[in-house]
Amino acid sequence: MKRWKRIFCVALGLALVFGTASRYQTTAFASELTNDNIKQMEAEIKKAQEEKKALQSGLTDVKELKKELEKSKTSLSNYVAEMDANLATVQAKIDELKTLIAEKEEEIADKTEELEDAIEVQQNQYEAMKSRIKFMYEKGDSLSLELIFSSESFGEMLNKAEYIESLSAYDRKMLDEYVAYAEYVALCKEGLEEEKSVLDEAKAAAQAEEDALNELIAAKEQEINQVSSDIANKEQAIKDYEADIAAENETIKALEAAVAEERKKLAAEQGRKYDGGMFTWPAPSYTRISSEYGNRMHPTLGVEKFHNGLDMAAPGGSPILAAYDGKVVAADYNSSMGNYIMIDHGDSLYTIYMHASALYVSKGTEVSKGDKIGAVGTTGRSTGNHLHFGVRLNGSYVNPWNYLRS
Questions:
Q1: Nearest-CA neighbor of 342 among 252, 276, 282, 259?
Q2: Which of 129, 217, 342, 355 could lock 330 by a disulfide, CB 3.0 to 4.6 Å apart?
Q3: What is the DSSP secondary structure assignment for residue 386, as one 8-state letter?
Q4: Distance from CA of residue 241 to its chain's centroid?
Q5: Could you report the per-residue pLDDT of 12-41, keeping only the tens digit for each?
Q6: How many CB atoms sit inside 10 A of residue 235's CB?
Q7: Cα Dmax for the chain
């Protein structure tokens, strides 16, 4: 027993001084204490490495997309529809990456706290072991002899010998716990670095996708402007524009007719009523009104045309809010309006939101004033990020300012 204790004390002391404690095999006790945590941390590190590889290989190939889009230039409408589908895909990637970035920042904060806790446990173990080693070197042998020889019977001596053996086992257990925590701390550090690496990769990927989105938007704007400004195609471009507006109006009127028919069927019930309240501003991130309601010089056609809404030049991806309480009667895509939403506010009053990059509501959704219903974009017949906001009353467009100003 004396010889074993002396060897154990020397080995333990050297392990702590020279950092070779990891050579000892952990016991079942230490394994039970931290094995699940270690396995979980190893799995998280592997997952982070796989996420980083996926981010590196999943970026949008803008050159290949533009090459494919060349095939859609047989007509502007086809080209715009194909381009918008790709813009939606890229925007979805950007939204996913932003969500991932937020998640990673939260995970990094949690892992930093977890690492600090593990280091604190490890340091406390280290200090406790130092105190125990000092005690064992100073009094270990003499204390064991004193305990044994002070026994008044053979049975008491066996009990004290068993106690000494248990104490030695406890010392070994402390060492095993320390070794296991040392391994866990190392994994925590590695896991934290991997998460930071994934975060950096996600931020780089998000920036790359933003660049891809802007490049595709610029290509779309160039194509629309080129078709509209070509003298040979000017007359056709005007006809196409007028056809688009006519198609928009037919779509809107058909929706209004469907709502009117529904109201007739529900005539016995109390219908939706507009209470006369003022609208909330539907594009809270807007920077300016890029085009007013009313007659204007069309920006690409160069002829005077009636503009049936307000163009709010808000940043792409910024929120679109429901101007007032109502029911969504349409949330769809149209090659002219792009992604659009139409809300019934009662008493034949409707609001329309065009060119969205994303729609967050669907037909039949009940919305309240200020609810987030979509994101600003440049889908459809559009040459830049903005919200086209229109108001219709009794089947005709009216000035939105009547409902936005008191």
A1: 252
A2: 342
A3: B
A4: 38
A5: 443 333 333 333 333 333 444 457 777 888
A6: 9
A7: 119
Q: Give long-range contacts, CB 8 A cutoff, 24+ apart: 199-207.
A: 199/101, 199/104, 199/105, 199/108, 201/52, 201/55, 201/56, 202/55, 202/97, 202/100, 202/101, 202/104, 203/101, 205/55, 205/56, 205/58, 205/59, 205/97, 206/94, 206/97, 206/98, 206/101
**What's the one-letter identity of residue 110?**
D
Q: Which amino acid is at 398?
A: V
Encode 71-87 in three state secondary structure.
HHCCCHHHHHHHHHHHH
For residue 281, give the nearest of 346, 353, 350, 349 by alpha carbon: 353
Alpha carbon distances (Å) from 170 to 155, 164, 165, 167, 306? 23, 10, 9, 5, 88
Amino acid of residue 309 = G
Pull the structure tokens for residue 237. Answer: 């471009």
d(CA 279, CA 345): 11
Contact criterion met (CB below 8 Å) for 380 and 404 = no
305: left (phi over 0), alpha (psi -120 to 50) or beta: beta
Residue 124, token pair as written in the block: 């406390």
pLDDT in tens, 184-211: 788 888 888 888 988 999 999 999 999 9
Question: Quick one: which of 352, 356, 360 has its CA closest to 386?
Answer: 356
- Give the Cα separation of 357 and 378 in Å (integer): 7
- State how far the Cα of 148 lies from the Cα of 93, in Å rounded to an integer: 74
User: Length of the chain, please?
Assistant: 406
Kindly tell me the burial class for residue 271, based on how many C-beta atoms sit within 10 Å of its own C-beta (0-12, 13-18, 19 or more).
exposed
201: CB partners within 8 A, 6+ apart: 52, 55, 56
One-letter amino acid of 241: Y
Q: Please calculate the CA angle 221-353-68 and round it to the nearest 5 degrees.
A: 35
